[in-house]
């Protein structure tokens, strides 16, 4: 069992893709799948997973859009704060790939300073 989008505070995940400070100062977020739906975009059919926090009025939508004619999947996340007070997002990744090392090779462009356009291929 691997989280599709691990949030900071869940002790079962070493790696995290999302971290926020809630209005009361708590930095723990527990996201659970609430629902799943498909939506048409100009590029094709996207699958959207709606994750809700167990204790706070926060919703995270994970979007997955396969690019036609390729082996590329576009991924992005949107966060909605349904509370009345402000929250602070400390980290938000566009996606997370919960695969075991060695099961696949991943090619990506990372965002490290001065190396934004360097392609990296890792097992």
Describe the model:
The protein has 123 residues and is mainly beta. It has a domain at 18-96. The protein has strands at residues 18-21, 31-41, 44-53, 58-66, 73-81, 88-92, 106-109, 119-122. The strands form 3 sheets. A 4-stranded antiparallel β-sheet has the order 2-3-4-5, with no helix packed on it. Strands 1-6 form a two-stranded antiparallel ribbon. The chain has a two-stranded antiparallel ribbon with strand order 7-8. A hairpin with a 6-residue loop joins strand 4 and strand 5 (73-81). The protein is globular and about 45 Å long.
Tally the helices.
Answer: 0
Largest sheet, described in full?
Answer: 4 strands, antiparallel
Mean pLDDT: 84
Shape: globular
Cα distance, first to last residue?
A: 20 Å
Please compute the radius of gyration using only Cα atoms: 16 Å
Count every beta strand, where a strand is a DSSP E run of 2 or more residues.
8
How is the largest sheet built, in terms of strand order?
Answer: 2-3-4-5
Based on helices, strands and strand pairing, what is the structural class?
mainly beta
Order of helices and strands: EEEEEEEE
- The helicity comes to under 10%
Low-confidence stretches: none
Classify the beta-strand content into a percent band: over 45%
């Amino acid at each position: 069992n691997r989280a599709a989008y691990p949030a900071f505070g869940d002790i079962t995940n070493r790696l995290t893709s999302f971290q926020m400070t809630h209005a009361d100062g708590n930095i723990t977020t527990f996201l659970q799948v609430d629902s799943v739906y498909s939506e048409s975009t100009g590029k094709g059919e996207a699958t959207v997973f709606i994750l809700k926090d167990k204790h706070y009025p926060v919703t995270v939508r994970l979007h997955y859009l396969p690019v036609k004619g390729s082996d590329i999947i576009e991924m992005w996340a949107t966060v909605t704060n349904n509370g009345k007070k402000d929250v602070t997002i400390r980290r938000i990744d566009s996606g997370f790939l919960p695969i075991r090392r060695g099961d696949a090779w991943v090619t990506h462009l990372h965002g490290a300073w001065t190396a934004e356009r360097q392609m990296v291929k890792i097992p």
